[in-house]
Specification:
The relative contact order is 0.11. By secondary structure, the chain is an alpha/beta fold. Helix 2 (about 60-80) packs antiparallel against helix 4. The chain has helices spanning about 1-50, 60-80, 85-90, 90-110, 120-145, 145-155; strands at about 55-60, 115-120, 155-165, 165-170, 175-180, 185-190, 195-205, 215-220, 225-230, 245-255, 255-260. It is built from six helices and eleven strands. The chain is rod-shaped. It folds into three domains: about 1-50; about 55-145, no CATH class; about 155-260, no CATH class. The strands form three sheets. Strands 3, 4, 6, 7 and 10 form a five-stranded mixed beta sheet that branches. Keywords: Membrane, Transmembrane, Transmembrane helix.
Length: about 260
Amino acid sequence: MNEMRANDTSMNEMRIKETRVNELPMNEMRANESPMNETPINEVQVNERRGNRRVWRVGSITTGVTLLLMGIILAASLWTQIEAYEALSWIGPVIFILLGIEVLLYLKYADAEKTGVRYDWFSIFTVGIISTLSIVLALFISTGLYDEMQRGMQMMQRSVYVSHEPVRVPEHVEKIIVHSLSNVEHYESDTRELQLLGQLQYWSAEPLALENVDLLETNTVGSTMYVMIGTIDRRDAGWFPSRVHSQLSLFIPEGIEVIHR
């Protein structure tokens, strides 16, 4: 009998141990499940907080206003006499002003509880490129490089014919002294008149108004007549200098001494 009781006691102890062993994994699984269930709740709360918080992107407004101004300027240049490159040179200062306003607003609202502020780097990069090009364009305009390049692209070879009105040579004139800035050939004529004929070939962006240019000037001193032959205005400096090639002929009355200087 005592042996049977001892066996029953040992069996009960084994059952208790098995029950404890089976309960241990279940408790561990419950302990592991509790944080998994809490994580989605925390994420939902964070998302809800972010949803209530407004995020302001520094640079977006500046980019929008800049693109709007560029479109207006280009459209206005098509309908009016406004040069697009002159108006676009003002985009740079406008960008700096707008971006400065956005930074000041950032400093004002950076500590607000429901306002999140961050930089829109793509927009800032875009306006940075536009402002840099605007500054470079303004420098080209202010230094005259843009006008020089535009003038060089518009230059072409032109020619103009010279036919000066005859100048009466007094009877007492025995000598004519010619001062010329270009090559001039002289010929004798059977009239008592002095006349300049020929043509000028030049490179220029604009046509020459020859009526505003006086190529021949005379002055008589005693028995000597001084003849001054000039040339058209030209520009030797710069990237695209003006070139002038003249073919002029001076007709002088026969029997008069001619001296070239």
